[in-house]
Write a structure and sequence with these properties.
It contains 7 helices and 5 strands; from the N terminus they run ααβββββααααα. By secondary structure, it is α+β, with helices and mostly antiparallel strands. Helix 3 runs parallel beside helix 6, helix 4 runs antiparallel to helix 7 and helix 5 packs antiparallel against helix 6. The radius of gyration is 62 Å and the shape is rod-shaped.
Length: about 600
């Protein structure tokens, strides 16, 4: 029904003011009637005591004189007294202000019922202010309220004897005064009765009926004034309640808007509420949280950019390393081909030993050619060694870049854990706020009607805490996704590092193989020089030449095998480099995705 907290608070305040006003009006009305009744009895007692003294002072009067006296009293009251009468112990009227009778018992049959309350009844009307504190006369006071008791018109004698058929009072004691509410015709009358003597010692009850019509009119006027005042109070309370509700809800509404902005990733706008109450403390805590989260998001964005740049550099380095490795592989293949040719030539030299004597010059020339080929092989081996050194340098650079990226990823992990700790603390604050709201609701329920307004505030604080918990859950989801991305990055970095270490190891083996090749080539050159120097004595040491050529053939085969192993190692190294390149590309994609996530935050 009420969509805003302000409307709810205003409705509660209105209901409380309305209930209090109605209760105040009812209590005021009852208190006026009770006070009027007490005053009516007091004034009536005084009046009837005065009349009784008058009767005692004139106890020799006959009934006609009593009637005349009663009429004078009634006329002097100016309509405030409806009747004055004397009744006997059987509640029969002896004399009244307008008639006398010896046996008027039948006149009691038509009397209006008397309220069954004694003088202590608090439901009777109050008396209006006057000289004698009795009610004012009704507007039609010309009509006498005491009807004639004649049997011709069958009207009831209005001079009631304070009794009814069902509840006769009888004779009232001399020191006793009884007050009752009566209906005489259509008039409400307050009857006062007390004991008296007449005609020289006869005992009876003196009855006076005081009109309540004027008093009821004034009570109604007073009641209307009370209602008007109550309505004014309600309107004033509504205005004050509206101002207070708006003043109380204004900072809460602002905080709700800021929390919605936080949930959308906007941390640019802070809180400016400077109150020193709980709302102000909450505003200060939320602003501190905003500043902390903003700083952390800024650090994460900065680290994400650094990871992206480092991954790009790593990709470039691996690409260059791959190009160099392809060059080394090609050189190794050429070296293998040269070694194979050397072995073939050695076999041909062995086959040509039978013609060695006749073609010594050709062998000398062939030895020169062989030496030149070995020199070329040596130069190619030197090129391979240099390329391998470049590859080793590139691998070392790759390892350094990988270590730096690993350090940045570890720093990113620490920042992510810090965010998780802050969100955990914030979640605990939200839970404590919910507990406080629940306690406030319990206390307001104990307070009853007066605590309804505080119940609404507690419910709204509970909702606000729930909204804060929802926003924190969103932040936790983003942090969890970030942690998963960081974990994946660390795994790829570990694999890349292992591959780089393996590449370094294989590169070392390759370098050692090149060193062996260089040593072998040096030995081959040395042997060829020996062959050239001993060509002059070939004829004398042919068998030795044959053995040397066989050694050359074996060495060439070993060189070919070593070169093939180097080529195989280089192929494996190329495979590892390709894997590292794929890992670097994956790392770059993760860094780009991380930067996209961080771009959602506005700080």
């Amino acid at each position: 029904m009420f969509k805003t907290l302000t409307a709810k608070m205003l409705s509660v305040v209105t209901l409380l003011v309305f209930i209090c006003t109605i209760a105040f009006t009812a209590l005021s009305y009852c208190e006026i009637r009770r006070s009027a009744t007490m005053q009516m009895k007091s004034d009536g007692t005084t009046l009837i005591t005065i009349i009784r003294r008058e009767l005692i002072g004139n106890d020799k009067l006959d009934r006609k004189e009593y009637q005349t006296l009663f009429r004078e009293i009634k006329e002097e009251s100016k309509g405030n007294i409806v009747y004055v009468s004397i009744s006997d112990e059987n509640s029969n009227i002896i004399v009244s202000d307008n008639s006398s009778t010896e046996d008027s018992g039948n006149a009691l049959d038509g009397m209006s019922s008397v309220t069954a309350n004694s003088s202590n009844s608090d439901a009777v009307s109050s008396a209006t202010a006057g000289s004698d504190a009795v009610s004012s006369a009704t507007a039609d006071s010309d009509t006498d309220g005491v009807s004639s008791a004649s049997a011709e018109d069958s009207d009831i004698d209005a001079v009631s004897s304070v009794t009814t058929k069902s509840n006769p009072i009888g004779l009232v004691g001399f020191d006793e005064t009884v007050g009752q509410m009566l209906m005489v015709g259509d008039k409400e009358v307050y009857n006062i009765s007390t004991g008296c003597t007449y005609n020289g010692g006869l005992s009876g009850s003196l009855n006076i009926g005081i009109s309540l019509n004027g008093m009821n009119r004034q009570i109604q006027q007073s009641f209307v004034k009370i209602i008007l005042i109550s309505i004014s109070i309600i309107l004033f309370a509504l205005a004050v309640g509206m101002c207070l509700a708006r003043g109380l809800m204004k900072p809460i509404s602002k905080m709700s808007e800021r929390l919605k902005a936080f949930a959308e990733g906007d941390f640019t706008v802070g809180f400016e509420f400077n109150s020193k109450d709980e709302v102000g403390e909450m505003s200060l805590a939320l602003d501190n949280m905003r500043q902390t989260l903003s700083a952390m998001v800024a650090d994460i964005q900065k680290n994400a950019k650094q990871v992206l740049e480092s991954s790009g550099n790593l990709t470039s380095v691996i690409d260059e390393t791959s190009t160099a490795a392809h060059g080394i592989t090609k050189a190794s293949e050429e070296l293998a081909m040269g070694s194979s040719d050397l072995a073939i030539n050695a076999q041909e030299g062995l086959l040509s030993l039978n013609r060695l004597a006749e073609e010594i010059n050709k062998i000398d020339q062939q030895a020169d050619i062989m030496k030149a080929g070995i020199e070329q092989t040596k130069e190619a081996n030197q090129v391979g060694t240099n390329s391998l050194q470049e590859l080793q340098s590139a691998i070392d650079d790759n390892a350094d870049v990988t270590d730096k990226i690993s350090g940045q990823v570890d720093l990113l992990t620490e920042k992510s854990k810090a965010i998780s700790q802050i969100t955990s603390v914030t979640k605990n604050i939200a839970k404590q706020t919910q507990l406080l709201a629940l306690n406030a609701s319990i206390e307001s329920a104990r307070a009853g009607e007066s605590g309804k307004g505080f119940t609404v505030v507690a419910e709204e604080i509970g909702k606000l805490s729930a909204q804060a918990s929802s926003s924190i859950a969103g932040i936790e989801n983003v942090v969890q996704e970030l942690e998963l991305s960081i974990t994946a990055t660390q795994e790829y970095m570990q694999k890349g590092s292992q591959a780089i270490h393996k590449t370094t190891e294989i590169s070392g083996k390759t370098k050692h193989a090149f060193e062996i090749i260089e040593e072998v080539l040096a030995n081959v050159i040395h042997e060829i020089e020996i062959i050239i120097e001993g060509i002059a004595t070939i004829h004398n040491d042919k068998n030795k030449v044959v053995n040397e050529i066989q050694n050359i053939s074996a060495i060439s085969e070993e060189a070919t095998s070593s070169t093939e192993e180097i080529a195989s190692s280089l192929e494996q190294q190329l495979s590892n480099i390709d894997f590292e390149y794929a890992s670097a590309k994956k790392l770059k994609e993760i860094a780009i995705e991380l930067e996209e996530h961080m771009s959602k935050f506005n700080i």
